[in-house]
Amino acid sequence: MEYVSTRGSAPALDFAGATLAGLASDGGLYVPREWPRFSADEIAAMAGLPYAELAARIMQPFVGDSLTPQRLLELTTQAYGRFAHKAVTPLRQLDQQQWLLELFHGPTLAFKDVALQLLGLLFEEFLGRGGDPLTIVGATSGDTGSAAIDAVAGRARVDIFMLHPKGRVSDVQRRQMTTVLAPNVHNVAIEGTFDDAQAMVKRMFNDPAMTGRFAIGAVNSINWARLMAQVVYYFAAALQLGAPQRKVAFAVPTGNFGDVFAGYVAAQMGLPVERLIVATNVNDILHRALTSGDYSQGTVTPTAAPSMDIQVSSNFERLLFDLNGRDGAALAAQMAGFEKTRAMQLTNAQREGAAALFSSARVEPEEMAQAIRWAFDASGELLDPHTAIGLHAARGAGIDPAVPVVTLATAHPAKFRDAVERATGQRPSLPARIGDLFEREERMIELPGDYDAIAHYVAKHAVPRG
Ligand SMILES: Cc1ncc(COP(=O)(O)O)c(C=O)c1O
Ligand SMILES: N[C@@H](CCOP(=O)(O)O)C(=O)O
């Protein structure tokens, strides 16, 4: 399988190359040259497979010659062996139509583990074949950071520099990052928002002064391998609910558009998806884009669902590319306009193409709290604020009652204990494996939200090429 850039001018790479490259050198994002497709019979034959086997089966066409089927299965078995639930991503029924897909049974209690546990192993595998040591530079609004750090801490030939917006992640999220004291882990709290951090990360990929000296790598969902691993749980959930004979709708709490784009990929691969419901908080750039075509960056408002406090959604570019006839030059021009003015209008083809599969909702803080209370009353389940935003959108989406609606439960409620307690009076306790989180020593540095300061820090601590 070959990977091409959404902006059309970076060299095409194989899977291993795209995994190590992260962002394409023309500023675009890598996507497979075409979507692999499974027949209904092939999908039906996947029912009942253990998660690691299902993952290897779905990912093999994307991985191509970069890994043998046997090696890929060994890696998925190792990655998902660390999850606290045998099903890895279990489904839980809330009422006749509503289901939760629990994606938070990995080591850091958020859906990011599903992809990052595998990505850590893929880095090790591909770096073990030679080449330059990897300097990972990432941005986090809370969950990617801890999952990525857990996945690469202590691994050879990798350093990770993780930028988070100071004071804008929950205490549990921050401590999950800053209490990992492995020498290859560098936590940086920056002044500014997640969007500022993400913009600096992308800039570093296109800064010859940095890329000339260091092999810069990505753990954010700009890295295709992240999304590839997230496609699997859409299949896992739909198969349990009757696919391929029955359609399933998914509601996805959304920030960077990675998780819901993985659902789009599942649909392109042949999974019968009724609808993908994009749920945002008040940071609603995606809701505005999908309802009126207005993709313009607003200011970021801090909320109780901080991981979705995002106003530039990286992976939206992958969707726009696909909906625009995969015309890289046209998309490069459209994105250049956005980068200049921080606003753009979707074309008719993009709007109509998106409307065929996506709906969206902007969920207000009180609606989020109501959804937490509703789920608690209906099933005794405590939801984290991000999941609650998805559930609120799911219940209001007007999906045919015969179609199951699955909300992606993207984080464990204990990561956001204050918000959950405010909504329900119940304070979720930390799972035993991180029970001592608040006694652990923290290590991080604080830097201004200034590209030169960050680049200087990375250059001082990273291992150069060669
Ligand atoms: C708990 C949680 N829910 C939802 C999201 C949004 O996912 P995405 O950025 O892939 O849209 C994130 C962060 O990405 C998250 O950490
Ligand atoms: N919500 C994310 C933001 C980064 O998104 P990513 O999926 O592109 O890594 C986080 O928790 O850090």
Automatic annotation (TrEMBL):
Its cofactor is pyridoxal 5'-phosphate. Residues 2-80 form the Threonine synthase N-terminal domain. GO terms for molecular function: threonine synthase activity. Its EC number is 4.2.3.1. Residues 88-360 form the Tryptophan synthase beta chain-like PALP domain. It comes from the Bacteria. NCBIfam families: thrC. Belongs to the threonine synthase family. This is Threonine synthase. It comes from Novosphingobium aquiterrae. The lineage of its organism: Bacteria, Pseudomonadati, Pseudomonadota, Alphaproteobacteria, Sphingomonadales. The gene is thrC.
